[in-house]
Structure formats: C-alpha cells, structure tokens
Amino acid sequence: MKRWTLAVLAMLATAWAADRPLTIVVAGPSTPAMVAELERLKSDNHAPLVIVQPSATELAQMAPRLGLAPADLPWVFVGTPEHIALGPGNVPALVRRVKSPATAADLMFARWAQLAQAPVSPDVQLLAEAFVPGKEVVLVAARTTAEADRLAAPLRQKCSVSHISTPQLPILVSGQDHPLLDPQDFLRLGFGDDALPCIGLIQMTQPPPGAGGLFEAGHPGRIVDGLLLRNVGNAEWAGDKILRAWAKASGTTLATDEATPTLEAASATPEVEETIVAGGPPVSVTPTAATPSGPVVTVPAGTSVKIRCLEDIDFKNGTRGTVVLFEAAQDVVVKGQVVIRAGARCDGLMREVEGSQGLLAVEIHYVQMVDGASVKVRGIPIIPVGADSILTRGTEFEVSTDAETTVRPR
Hints:
Elements: H1 2-13, E1 23-27, H2 31-44, E2 51-52, H3 56-66, E3 75-79, H4 81-86, E4 93-95, H5 101-116, H6 122-130, E5 136-142, H7 145-161, E6 171-175, H8 183-189, E7 198-204, E8 220-230, H9 235-250, H10 263-267, E9 274-275, E10 284-285, E11 297-299, E12 304-309, E13 313-314, E14 323-328, E15 332-334, E16 337-340, E17 345-352, E18 360-368, E19 374-378, E20 390-391, E21 396-401, E22 405-407
Helix pairs in contact: 1-3, 2-5, 5-6, 7-9
C-alpha cells in the first residue's frame, strides 16, 4: 500500500506546488466538460488554480484511497496529497457520479476558492457561502434564470435595506435553462416542475459521521419549517413572507421603513397563486378564488396507499438519483372523504442499498392529496430479485403515510 500511495503522491507533486497545495482533481467521462468550465472560471477570476486529470493507472491507484469505486465516475474533488493519504472522507469537497458537469465544476471551484482564500467574483463567492453543511439559504427556482432573478430582486432589496449580508442569508436562483440543482435535489425537497416558480427557505444537509464531500454533505436537504411558496406571482409578497420567517427564527431585526405587502394586496393581482405552508409540504391557495369551505379531514399516520409504477425500471442499468414516476392506484378514503385520488402523482428515487456494492432500490417519497398538498409516505424499498431485474410498468405496491396530516377535500 505504501508503494502505490507514494506513486500517487509523486504524480500529484508536479501539480501541487509548495505554495499552492490545494487543487481540483477531475476524472471520468465528463472530464472535458468539467475541465472546460474550470478553465473558464480560472480565467475569469484570474485564479491560481491547478487542475489535475489522472491517467487510468493513476486513477486505479487513487480511487481506492478515496473510497471511490468505478461506479462513482465521473467525479471531481478538491484536495491535497495529504487529504488523499488520510483516506476516505478526508477530502474537503467531493462530487461523485456527476450528472451536471458545469454545476459540479462551479461548486468545486467555489469550494476551492473558499479554502484557498482566493479572490473571486460575487457569483462564485455566493456558491461558496451557500453550499455549507447546515446552512439556511433562500432558493428561488423558475423555468428560466431571468425569471428567477426577477422574483429574487425584491427579496435582495429587502435584505439590503435591513443590512442582511449574503453570508447571513444567501439567495440562490435556479432556472431550467441554467439549473443550479439536479432533479433529485428538488425531489428530495418534495416538489417538482409543477411548483415553479417557487421561493423556499432551505437548509443544506449535515454530514453523517465520518463522511465528507460537498454533495455528500452541504446540498439542499429540507424545507425549513415547511416554508415553501410555489406558483408565485407576487414576488414582493413572497419575498417578504420568507424573509420575516427567517428573521423571526434567527432573531434578526428587520428595517421597518417599508410597508409590508399583505395577502389582500397580493390577491388584487388576478394571476397570483401562492402556497402557504405550515409545518409540512406545500398546500396551494389561489387568493383570487375562494378557499374550499369543506370540512378538514385528518389523515392518520400509517394510512395505506396503493401505488402503481408508470414506467419500466431497469435496475441493472439504472443510475442513483434517477426520478421514477408512480401514481395512486385507487382512491384513498378517510371518514367517507376521498383524500388521495386514483391517478395522483407519486414520485420515487433510485438509491443504492447500503452495503450492497452498487445494488439499486427505488424509494417512494411523496404522494399528492386532493387539495394539492404532498404528503410524505414510507414503505419497504423496492429492491430487484436479481441483477438483471426489470420492474415492469403497472406493477403495484403498498406504502403508507409517514405522519398525521390534514386535508380539505374539494
């Protein structure tokens, strides 16, 4: 082991100068795209960045030392020879199984700049300050980056008036034309394209014991206190609501020299639709229309939901993080009221079974109720019988609601 470790360190010695020990190492099929983005960032920021692309032999020696397998390619990490020598979980930042080369490169460059204390552009600095384990950030997502920027503008102005700096409350914008997040990030948070445009208060994940890496820790993990506003039409009102919720929780005092938009004011705009969330997944409300006046029904935890697969799933050739579509196979009735309608959307996510060396399973996360809310569900992960197993479209399973929730039948 000592021999090949020394060989790896010798290979890296040509790239790691004594005064610049921190570098970015890129490997796998997406290497050209990631390197091109890193070179652009390096040039734009006049950064003293060193980029290493290990050969196949060097890669075979380096990967086990980092705890990486061939299935983890493509990957990119920030580190030094000392980080590699210390073994798995010790590199400062790592993205494995890269699906968006440009995004991975942007995040790694931001992390490198933060660790190297290199002066960089405000956009890069924002990423470095946002993608930190446990950090609370505002996420503004829309179909285009320009639309997301427009929605974020009133919130940025309110932060400026109250002297709230970017490190205190980073505001991230993500458009489908230039996505900052992967689809599985949105699924993890419990919403999809049907929620756009949306504004939410998000907390980055905390690292599990002994784990390292930017996507292993420090990626969008949960909606804080269920505060997600979706299908936003009034950016002024939505930004104010998010900011006041964050300020109350953090004990931050806001400037009071601006009038606070009210829900009634927001309702004056016919096309506005907000989502008001309290302690759970989002519930859509259209201010211009009357809220359903039917009785509120409590759906107990453990309520059974039968779901149906909407596509064939190839476990052998699948990829961790792939979104899999299901639907409710039949109505779910509680106290004589339909709370989940047959055909309701239900999303799943392919993940690796712990300790299985690459065996994939499908885990179901949320199903949509009749009032538009999404309730979290749980069930035994769907695991293939054999390595060549294919789950066929139409296969049905049973899951159950994870916690007690309420719904207002329409």
